[in-house]
Every structure is written in C-alpha cells, then in structure tokens.
Amino acid sequence: MDLSLSPKAYTVLDQVRQFFEQDILPRNREMIRSVKQDGDLDPPFLDQMRAKAKSQGLWNLAQTELADHQPGLPMSNLDYSLIAEFLGRVLWSSKAFNCQWPDVPNMVALQRYANEQQKEKWLQPLLDGECQSAFAMTEPATASSDAKNIAATITRDGDDYIVDGLKWYITGGGHERCRFYLFLGVSNPDAGPNRQHSVILVPRDATGVTVGAANSFFGYSEPNGPASEINFDQVRVPKENLLGEEGEGFAVSQARLAPARLHHSMRAVGQCELLIELMYARALERQAFGRPLVGYDTVQYAIAHSRVETEQMRLLLRKVAAQVDIEGEKSAYRDLSILKVAIAQGYFRIADRAVQVFGAMGGYDGTPVADAFAWSRAFRIGDGPDEVHLRSIFRAEPVPEMVLSTSAYILPPDISR
Ligand SMILES: Cc1cc2nc3c(=O)[nH]c(=O)nc-3n(C[C@H](O)[C@H](O)[C@H](O)COP(=O)(O)OP(=O)(O)OC[C@H]3O[C@@H](n4cnc5c(N)ncnc54)[C@H](O)[C@@H]3O)c2cc1C
Fold first, then answer.
1. Which of 142, 150, 169, 386 has most ligand 1 atoms within 8 Å of its beta carbon, as the pocket-test mutant?
2. Residue 199 forms beta bridges with which residues?
3. Whether 236 and 254 share a structural domain
4. DSSP string, 104-162
5. 239 with 288, same domain?
6. Ligand 1: which residue has its CA nearest to atom 28?
7. pLDDT tens for residues 96-118?
8. Which of 62, 70, 312, 361 has CB atoms 3.0–4.6 Å from 66's, for a disulfide?
9. Domain range holding 151?
C-alpha cells in the first residue's frame, strides 16, 4: 500500500503551521483560562480565527468530499492525517478550521443520508461554521456500548414523530452554539434487531428538550463540550426530520464511525508527540538528587518507549487512513477497530508516563498532561470501549488454515524418560 502523502498535504501543513504559530499558540493560555476559569468555550477571538482561516481557504479540511457549492478544501484521509496530527497538539485548534468533533462525523452522516432539503437546512450551516451539532445516542440507563440496547423512542404521530428519552455524555450537546442533535432511538420495535432504530434531527430549541448537567470525565471537559445530559421529553418534530429511512439508524450511525475513529486517532498521535516533547523539556528543567531528571535512565526509557509506540501508532494510522481512502470504510471496519484499540491504549500509556515524569504537576488542572491523561482514558471508552473492538477483531480473525493442528509445530515432551 502506497503511504506517500501528496504535495498538497505538505502545502496545507505549512499554511496551518503558520496559522498555528501566529494565531493559535499565542492565545492558548488565554483559551485555557477562558474554558477552565470562565467556562467560556468560545471566546470572541475564536470567531475572528474562524473568519481568517475561512478567508485563507483553510476550512473543512477534514471532509473527503465536498460539492462545488460547499465551502472548504477537501482532503484524503491520508493527507488529512498530517494536518490533524499537527492540530492534535492543541485540541481546541481544530475549531478554527471547522474540523472539530462531533461536527465532522455528523457532517459526513448528513452528506451521505440527508436529502437536498435537509442538506440545505442542517448541513449547510455546519459547513459554513454558523453553528455546531451533537450526536445523541448514549443513555445512563442502558449499556450503550451495545447500540441495540438504546431504548429512547421515536414514535410516529400523524405528520410528526414524538422523541422521548434521557441521554448523557453528549459531546457538545450543552454548547451554546449547538443548534441540533442527531438523535438515535427505537422507531420500529417489531423489526429485526438491526432495523429497530432510526436517527432523527431534533432542534435544540424544540419544546421538551432540556440540557441538564455537564458530564465531565475525571474533571476534564472536551474543548467542543461540555458533554451533557440531555432530556428529550415527548419532543414533537416533523417527519421531514428523519435522517435516512426508518430502521436505518445503525447505518446512519456507522457513517460517523470511520471519521470519528480516524480523526480522534490522528489527534491522539499529535498529543503523543506533544507529551514526548513536554516530558523531555520538563526533565531538562528539573533537578533531583543532584542532576537533571533527564540524566536518569528511567526518564530516558519513558521518553524512548513513548517514541517507539508513537512511531508504531503513526504507521498504523496512515495505513488505515489509506485503506479507507482506497477501499472505503466498510472493508476497513476490522482495521479501524485495531487502530482504535492500539491508539487509545498507546496514548493512555504515554499520558501515564508523562504524569509520572511531571510529578504533582502531572495532575494539576492547568497542564495538558492532566488533560491528556483524562482524555486518553476516555478514548478507551468513547467510540466503543476496547473490549467491544477486541471482540470484533477476534471475530474477524480467520480460523487458522496452516496450523490445523499444533502438533506439527511442537516437539512433545518425551514421557518415557
Ligand atoms: C468523554 C466522552 C464523550 C462521549 N461523547 C458521546 C457523544 O457525543 N454521544 C454519545 O452518544 N455518547 C458519547 N459518549 C458515550 C460513549 O459512547 C459510551 O460511554 C460508550 O459507548 C460505552 O457505553 P456505556 O458508557 O454505557 O458503557 P457500558 O455499555 O455500560 O459498558 C461498560 C463496560 O462494559 C465492558 N463491556 C461492554 N461490552 C463488552 C463486551 N462485549 N465484552 C467485554 N466487555 C464489555 C467494557 O469494559 C465497557 O467499558 C461519550 C463518552 C465519553 C467518556
């Protein structure tokens, strides 16, 4: 498989890097203060950044396809991996380029399943960066790692549907810019287990929608968050809001999976690069027992092991990104699961090492190290817990053909001796 990046990828990276150095990094501390101390996820300077990025054509870079009238610069998954990895160093930076989650996976689902009227009403404002959206699947009352358990309901009533159910950990669902939800619920309870659910578009300001408590994860709130509890109490929405056909809820949700898993993995590799640099810089700065921390081989191993794992992760990431570009996501499901497990676990190990090298500062609220620890732990659960992916990977494992029996490979113990 050819993993070479196109010249366009490097040109865009140069432009993004320049933007990052001029506009994003100088405001990083201001942004952290705004989010953590003032609870403001979208300070006014973000709008200015969005306008500037859009005017430079650095917009919607995470879309692989855009129609002529849709704004932005589509990139292949492989090329975008270079950009998203770089932006992963500062997680909120994706917002400046309209590449933030969960909007990007939602846009992909809308591109694929929305009709023309729905695209104009719901997709276009997202592509223009006018608003945000959220994906509402998980429920506190059900084991939501098995989507078949989702129990919220979407019930036809004349020309409307009635939407009902309590959701939580809905990323971005409580953000003031969030205009609507892609809501997953049971519409056809008598159909087969894979055809019972649908996705419907629910405006945030519809009567009966209540945004409740923020759901942070170990105290960390995503930059596009907060993830929130959202109650949908007998919410009436017109039948035109159904996305796809009744019973196609899992297919619509699956359209989100490849971009969600790929892009989180790309940013996670960028986070690992940052953590390696932070570990190294901190170990140069601090002295213990008469020498800089970097002089101790345990610290050197922490950095070196992290380097080994990051190189492995990047290679796997590019291979799966190229595979999705070439073959489409359906034939890459197993590999997307392998990628998700490898990256979530590798990222978590590296974040754990960084916490150790940083000492108490590693758990302090103001460092990206603490955020990475929480976020990498969340990544092992969100978008499918490790175990669910491992189960799929095992199921896709072919029954061994060459080794029909182990005997040809093993010299048995000589029991006569
Ligand atoms: C930071 C964050 C953001 C999130 N954002 C969103 C969002 O935007 N929208 C949304 O709808 N949801 C979101 N989620 C929720 C996330 O998708 C769910 O938490 C996830 O699907 C797991 O569901 P659950 O929490 O109900 O765990 P459960 O289904 O109760 O599973 C608990 C544990 O059981 C084990 N388990 C489950 N199945 C198996 C199996 N087959 N074999 C072995 N062990 C198994 C796993 O260890 C798993 O972690 C988010 C979660 C987090 C942490």
1. 169
2. 184, 243
3. no
4. HHHHHHHHHH--HHHIIIIIHHHHHTS-EEEEE---TTS-TTSGGG---EEEEETTEEE
5. no
6. 143
7. 999 999 999 999 999 999 999 99
8. 70
9. 132-243
CA of 15 to the centre of ligand 1 (A): 37
Q: Is 148's C-beta closer than 6 angstroms to any atom of ligand 1?
A: no
Q: Tell me whether residue 117 is in a domain.
A: no
Report the residue among 106, 376, 381 best suited for mutation to probe ligand 1: largest number of ligand atoms under 8 A from its CB. 381
Pocket test for ligand 1, best of 104, 144, 216 (most atoms within 8 A of CB): 144
323-382 per-position pLDDT tens digit: 999 999 989 999 999 999 999 999 999 999 999 999 999 999 889 999 999 999 999 999
Decide the pairing of beta strands 209-214 and 228-238. Answer: antiparallel
Side-chain-side CA neighbours of 120 within 13 Å: the count stands at: 3
Q: What is the pTM of this model?
A: 0.96
Instruction: Check pocket membership of 227 for ligand 1, CB cut-off 6 A.
Output: yes
pLDDT higher than 80, residue 174: yes
H helix runs in 220-286, sequence order: 249-285
72, 162: one domain: no
Nearest to 198 by CA among 130, 109, 331, 277: 109
287 plus 386 within the same structural domain: yes
Q: Which of 11, 79, 81, 401 minimizes the C-alpha distance to 266?
A: 81
- Report the amino acid identity of residue 212: G
